[in-house]
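Technical annex, item 7. During the second reporting period the consortium partners agreed on a shared format for inverse folding records so that results from different sites could be compared directly. Each record opens with the tokenized structure and is followed by the designed sequence. A conforming record, contributed by the partner at site C, is shown below for reference.
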């Protein structure tokens, strides 16, 4: 009986992980141009100030429409692995706390706020250590620092806009260049601020779970509800942790010839050279992208998980019919 329960729980963990990975793929594809805009605003710190519309025009004129999707392949791979690992460990930890609640005869199996935060910390830390190399490669491809125009360049002139967009390096070429010029440890650039940023999913999922619990006491939570609850959780979490997001992006794209600052020194450098506002560069597209991506992620995940549950129910029925 215990083995059957354990196997069922393992299957449920994997179902949540696959649903999270699928939801991440769909939501990332929908919102990727906003990720490109946000990343470039964070790492191209001395570019002339311009509106989001001007930034889009600059990228399209210089690189074509595909410039808005630079690095999408590694991003999709990264988000699928990231979400699979995160949701697997989150559901594993959740199941552990629920079993503990049953053993202690607690009135409710629902996770407390503290338990939600611990589950998020465990899942987030495991995810960072496993997926950081993927996101380093993705950030390098998205920022395309070495191919950016000069720091003081304004929008391209019509004559420049008619030139053929520069060819974009593949994911494999980016990895080879990074290994050749900086060594394999460069794949773990920004790990410390990334671990600090585990507070982002902790806040996001804690807010989401607590709001969901409140709503479940009144009625069944629908994918539409998950969409809005996920948006609220991500809005608050990203607004609070954005300075760390900026520092992490800067550390990911730091070249071998550039200054190799630690996290605290990176903060000081940004504040010294760009004032406090430098820590919030690109926050508008980032918050917009993060909120929309999270909202679609939670909605898609709920739908995909329900589909997997229904599919698993049909398997025994089909076997029995035979």
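Designed sequence (site C submission):
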């Amino acid at each position: 009986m215990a083995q059957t329960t354990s196997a069922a729980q393992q299957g449920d963990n994997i179902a949540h992980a696959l649903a999270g990975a699928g939801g991440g793929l769909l939501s990332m594809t929908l919102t990727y141009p906003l990720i490109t805009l946000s990343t470039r605003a964070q790492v191209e710190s001395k570019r002339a100030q311009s509106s989001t519309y001007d930034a889009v025009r600059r990228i399209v004129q210089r690189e074509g429409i595909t410039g808005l999707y630079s690095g999408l392949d590694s991003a999709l791979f990264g988000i699928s692995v990231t979400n699979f690992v995160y949701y697997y460990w989150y559901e594993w930890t959740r199941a552990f706390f629920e079993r503990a609640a049953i053993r202690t005869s607690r009135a409710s199996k629902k996770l407390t706020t503290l338990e939600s935060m611990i589950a998020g910390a465990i899942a987030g830390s495991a995810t960072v250590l496993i997926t950081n190399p993927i996101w380093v490669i993705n950030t390098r491809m998205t920022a395309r620092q070495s191919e950016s125009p000069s720091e003081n360049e304004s929008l391209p002139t019509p004559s420049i806009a008619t030139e053929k967009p520069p060819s974009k390096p593949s994911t494999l070429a980016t990895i080879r260049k990074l290994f050749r010029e900086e060594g394999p440890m460069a794949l773990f650039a920004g790990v410390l601020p990334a671990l600090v940023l585990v507070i982002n999913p902790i806040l996001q999922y804690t807010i989401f779970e607590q709001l969901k619990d409140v709503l479940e006491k009144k009625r069944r939570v629908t994918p539409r509800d998950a969409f809005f609850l996920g948006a609220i959780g991500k809005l608050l979490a990203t607004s609070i942790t954005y300075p760390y997001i900026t520092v992490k992006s800067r550390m990911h794209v730091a070249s071998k010839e550039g200054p190799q600052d630690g996290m605290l020194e990176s903060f000081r450098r940004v504040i010294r050279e760009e004032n406090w506002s430098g820590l919030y560069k690109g926050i508008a597209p980032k918050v917009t992208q993060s909120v929309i991506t999270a909202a679609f992620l939670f909605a898609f995940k709920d739908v995909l998980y329900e589909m997997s549950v229904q599919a698993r129910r049909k398997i025994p029925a089909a076997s029995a019919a035979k």
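Residues 205 and 212 are 10 Å apart (CA to CA). The first helix runs from residue 2 to 43. All partners now use this format for quarterly exchanges.
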